[in-house]
Amino acid sequence: xxxxxxxxxxxxxxxxxxxxxxxxxxxxxxxxxxxxxxxxxxxxxxxxxxxxxxxxxxxxxxxxxxxxxxxxxxxxxxxxxxxxxxxxxxxxxxxxxxxxxxxxxxxxxxxxxxxxxxxxxxxxxxxxxxxxxxxxxxxxxxxxxxxxxxxxxxxxxxxxxxxxxxxxxxxxxxxxxxxxxxxxxxxxxxxxxxxxxxxxxxxxxxxxxxxxxxxxxxxxxxxxxxxxxxxxxxxxxxxxxx
Length: 242
Known about the structure:
Elements: H1 2-22, H2 32-44, H3 48-61, H4 66-85, E1 94-99, E2 102-107, H5 121-133, H6 137-150, H7 154-165, E3 168-169, H8 175-178, H9 186-197, H10 205-211, H11 216-222, E4 226-227
Parallel strand pairs: 3-4
Antiparallel strand pairs: 1-2
Helix pairs in contact: 2-3, 3-4, 5-6, 6-7
């Protein structure tokens, strides 16, 4: 119990430090790095609105800083993609909540304020996809394991393997997995699947990025997440002289 209290106290202290940094509004060059680091802290916590505001403050002070500009663009992109992806699902017992730049999956409550129990494998699968899109692979794996414990499904197995390997093979994975790649919307994913079906093969991130017109910050966001098949080596025939 004492450890729990200690951890809780540490978390509160950390949040207090972050909030103090966030509220700094001193327009001097010495504080640009503080604002930038503050933005990075919020970015890693998926609080993209606060991160964006910090990066923009830093960029206002140092408008020629390319690193600040890149993070502003990346954070704006993250916010835009999340607004598309996370929508309220009125047909289910759970819903995505947006609060001050952070998305979370919560359970609806009944009229007597008690949680509705969710035991649907499909719900667990959806929760896993959300964590996968956030690059929270370990959390995603837990949800996919729960889905598989209820129903042996090929899609659930595929998703579990992706979460375990922390990699997405664009030539093999399903549409649901492709949609967890932040820079790909449904139009691009459908185009990818159609091209793939017609025999198109991507062997590296550069050719993939060129075909889908990805921006530099989008490329940075996904380059460690995707894997591609190796190019087949051409067999050479050695001539035998008589």
